[in-house]
């Protein structure tokens, strides 16, 4: 019996396989130069067909992915990453690369297994299927990579890791689009929430490990990979306070002052990236709080944690909010605009 992923992949990938064949027929009356161009075109289409055939085969032959999915991932603590991070001879970089080479296929296989468990109507969505294919392709690229024995191979592995990071940079957007398209077909929100919780958490871990390994090559005395040796919470908070105040002034014409109390001189090893995600959202919500805000209506309290639920459509009627959203969207992706709490 074919797996659900194989059934879903058949119509789309089958058409892809057939498309090159119809373009390689050369008329008998063609000139020599035309034949030469046609031969080159045939070779290109043949290579494309082989690549697509390999992709199709990977959907039907899942034994390697199944075997990897049965393995448990090896988790590393922040302390392990920090204290094994630097050595004078560069051995730490080879050790990190070997760990990634072994660990990434396992974690990716877990995610592929998660895609297979989706309800059929969701798994058939072209955008969701495209993300599924990205994970399968990444798995095979990592598994097919040779053992890492020296710095030359490790340098090639770094290029592969960077390529995969670039290929997967839009996965969250694609998942959001795919599930938005399937929204009316979602019967059990719990299945969707569990899938996205696991997938997004796993994706964050994979990208942090990959980014950490690439950052080990940088010569920065204050950092070990992506870990800051002496992180100052006060400095990071001040940076995002300035950002949130400027955003608030743009939105409302005024912004509250922020005073930082506590152990303001504290410094400790930590990864700045999660703080850069969380702090601006906390500060924006705090600055937007109103004495007459009304809070969250009781009839939507149970929905506010659902991925597909949002009150953005209602707020879009406010022209000030709409203009702010357009400005922030055009200026970059540092942080989302100020919007309703938890929605």
From TrEMBL:
Top-rank EC class of the record's enzyme: transferase
Residue span, Branched-chain alpha-ketoacid dehydrogenase kinase/Pyruvate dehydrogenase kinase N-terminal domain: 75-228
Entry's EC annotation: 2.7.11.-
UniProt-listed InterPro entries: AK/P_DHK_N_sf (IPR036784), BCDHK/PDK_N (IPR018955), BCKD/PDK (IPR039028), HATPase_C_sf (IPR036890)
UniProt KW Nucleotide-binding keyword: yes
Gene3D superfamilies: Alpha-ketoacid/pyruvate dehydrogenase kinase, N-terminal domain, Histidine kinase-like ATPase, C-terminal domain
GO molecular-function term, one example from the UniProt record: ATP binding
Domain of life: Eukaryota
Keywords: ATP-binding, Kinase, Mitochondrion, Nucleotide-binding, Transferase
UniProt-annotated location(s): Mitochondrion matrix
Pfam families listed in its UniProt record: BCDHK_Adom3
Residues annotated as signal peptide: none
Keyword DNA repair appears in the UniProt entry: no
GO cellular component: mitochondrial matrix
Gene Ontology biological process terms, A to Z: regulation of glucose metabolic process
Xref: PANTHER family: PROTEIN-SERINE_THREONINE KINASE, PYRUVATE DEHYDROGENASE KINASE
Family: Belongs to the PDK/BCKDK protein kinase family.
Protein name in UniProt: Protein-serine/threonine kinase
Source species: Sphaeramia orbicularis (orbiculate cardinalfish)
Lineage: Eukaryota, Metazoa, Chordata, Craniata, Vertebrata
């Amino acid at each position: 019996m074919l797996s659900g992923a194989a059934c879903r992949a058949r119509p789309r990938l089958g058409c892809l396989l057939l498309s090159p064949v119809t373009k390689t027929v050369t008329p008998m009356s063609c000139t020599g130069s035309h034949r030469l161009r046609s031969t080159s075109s045939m070779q290109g289409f043949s290579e494309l067909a082989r690549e697509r055939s390999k992709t199709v085969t990977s959907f039907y032959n899942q034994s390697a992915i199944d075997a990897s999915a049965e393995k448990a991932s090896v988790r590393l603590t922040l302390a392990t990453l920090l204290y094994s991070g630097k050595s004078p001879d560069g051995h730490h970089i080879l050790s990190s690369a070997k760990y990634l080479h072994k660990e990434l296929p396992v974690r990716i296989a877990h995610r592929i297994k998660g895609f297979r468990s989706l309800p059929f109507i969701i798994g058939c969505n072209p955008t969701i299927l495209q993300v599924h294919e990205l994970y399968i392709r990444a798995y095979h690229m990592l598994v097919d990579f040779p053992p890492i024995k020296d710095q030359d191979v490790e340098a090639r592995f770094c290029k592969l890791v960077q390529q995969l990071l670039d290929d997967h940079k839009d996965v969250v957007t694609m998942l959001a689009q795919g599930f938005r398209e399937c929204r009316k077909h979602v019967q059990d929100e719990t299945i969707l929430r569990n899938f996205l919780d696991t997938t997004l958490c796993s994706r964050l871990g994979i990208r942090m490990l990959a980014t950490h390994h690439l950052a080990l090559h940088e010569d920065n005395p204050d950092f070990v990979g992506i870990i800051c040796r002496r992180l100052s919470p006060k400095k990071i908070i001040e940076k995002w306070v300035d950002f949130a105040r400027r955003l608030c002034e743009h939105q409302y014409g005024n912004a509250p002052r922020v005073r930082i109390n506590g152990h303001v001189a504290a410094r400790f090893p930590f990864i700045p990236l999660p703080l850069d995600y969380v702090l601006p959202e906390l500060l924006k919500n705090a600055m937007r709080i109103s004495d007459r805000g009304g809070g969250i209506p009781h009839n939507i309290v149970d929905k506010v944690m659902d991925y597909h639920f949002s009150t953005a459509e209602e707020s879009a009627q406010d022209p000030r909010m709409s203009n702010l959203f357009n400005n922030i969207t055009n200026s970059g992706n540092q942080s989302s605009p100020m919007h309703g709490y938890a929605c």
